[in-house]
Structure formats: structure tokens, C-alpha cells
Amino acid sequence: MENKVILAADDLSSRSKASNTRSDIIRDLSAEIARRLRLPLGIVYVSLSKQGEYSPQLIAQVKRQDREAIQKLKKQMSYYSVKTKVDTVLGDPVEMILKRADLKSTELLVIGAQWKRGIQKILIGSVSEEILRKASCPVLIVGPEVVRNDYEIPIEDPLRILMLTDLSPASTGAEDYANFLAKRMKADLTICYSWGHRMYELKEALASRKLSNLKLAIHSMNTRRRIEKLLNDKVKTAEKMGINVQGLLLSQQKSLERVIASDGDQMADLIVVGSHSRSRVTKAFIGSTTRKLILESPVPILVVRSNR
Q1: What's the number of domains the chain is made of?
Q2: pLDDT, tens digit, 9 for 90 and up, residues 244-262
Q3: How far apart are CA 216 and CA 182, in angstroms?
Q4: Domain check: are 105 and 190 in the same one?
Q5: 23: Cβ–Cβ under 8 A, 6 or more apart, which residues?
Q6: Domain, as residue range, for 105
Q7: Is residue 125 classed as helix, strand or coil in its secondary structure?
Q8: Global pTM?
């Protein structure tokens, strides 16, 4: 953990009520995680992504306004109990943020996301989505529902971390990072598998093969036993690390994102998920479940690459 830093990235261009709330949450969340991990905090703001399209007078004006905003922010950050450095840089937001985030010193990157409708799908914002796809470090995302619910991270109570796993090797990196955070921050950890979501998908698949209800019941029973053993093994691993941990098998037969959207803030203060590796053809997209979780969760989502 030596020479590591928590990095928060934000912009100064949008000053709507929602963007101000999002910025406040990003700063509070980043500062509290930095405090619990006993790490310094770095905040980077990117301005004027296409300088060539603006007059020198406008560029100078924006730079002056940015300096004023940064000075005000530095004063606000002085009230946090962590060492903080605030920088503003000019250039492409994705390029500049990734340049900072990909440094070996970055433990965790915190960014915001918002609703954007694209062709035949809902996006989380072009900048946020591209950063999420390309960042080599774990990315903690403050989504639109987090902002709408005016989320506040606990200051004195133990942090509640919910690790969503599919129990496959692709989730190992996220499980390891959730264990690391829980141990380092003395947080309460819940390792969760959505049995109901799995059964809903299984019934759809088996129905197409015209299997009998008896065969489906036998298959379900055998699968559940295997899942319970795997989940129990994950819990035992965390317990050996001295973590206060429990296993959770969700039984509601509905999509995982719907469960999190309705009950997420009652279950956790922070949710950890794994981002599965993708082929060169499909790596331009993040998984649909991860995207929906980011957009619908009332608490921040921490995405960890499977090859971490």
C-alpha cells in the first residue's frame, strides 16, 4: 500500500444541481475511503477537451474560472481528515484521466456516471463508459440513482460491502479485492450469489428443451447444493482473514439489477462486481448486467477487472 493514492476524477463544466450533488458525493466518498485505507487523496479536473475550437480569449477566461473554482475546492477539501492534492488539466477527459489512473500509484479511481440513451441501449455516459472499459485499476462509480437518493457514506459506523459473485473464476479478482477492502477498512462483508436470477434463466433454458418439471427440480436441487458449498467456501476464506463476513443466497426469481435497485441501500453502502474479460471483438462494451447495476443501484458500484 506504500505510495498508493485514491484518485477522484470530476469535471468543472457542468454546474447543474445534479452535477453539484454528484461532485459532492464523489469528494465525500473518495475522502472517506482514503481515510479508512489510510491513503492520500488526489482529485483531478479536466477542462476544455478541444482547445483548438475556442478563441484564445475564451480559453483564458475558462482557465481563470477554473483557477477560482479550484481555489474554492481546495479550501473545502481542507476540512477533510486526509492529505489531498487537487489538480486541473487541459485535454481529452478520457485520455487525461486514464493517464493518471493507469499509474501504479493509483489504488482506486472514483468517477461519476449519468443516464444517456444511445441507439438500442442505455449508456452510462461516453466518458465514464470508456474509462470503465480501459482503466487498469478498480473503478468506483457514482451512478444516477446514487445522486438522486443523495447518498451519504457512513463516517463512524462500519462500512457494509456487498460482493456480487457468479462463483466463476471471472469473479475471483473482485472477490479478492472485496476481501482486501473489508480487511483493511474493518468493514462488514456479504458475499452474495443470486440464486433466483440463476433459476429464472435456467427455467427459460430448460423449458426450450422440453424437460419435465421433475428433471428440472432434480437439476435445481443438485445445482443449489453445489452453489451453497461454493459460497460457503468463499465465506470460510474471508473468515480466515479475520473479516466479519456472511454468505447470502438471493432467492427472488427476478433480475439481479431489480433486486439491487429496490433493496441495495438496505443491503450495503458499497457494491463490488467483477468485469469479465472479453474478446477483442466485444471488449468495446461493458456487460449489460454491470451497466444496469451502475444505472439503477442506489449505492456506488465498484468494478474490478477479472484479470486483476
Answers
A1: 2
A2: 999 998 877 677 888 899 9
A3: 38
A4: no
A5: 10, 112
A6: 1-153
A7: coil
A8: 0.84
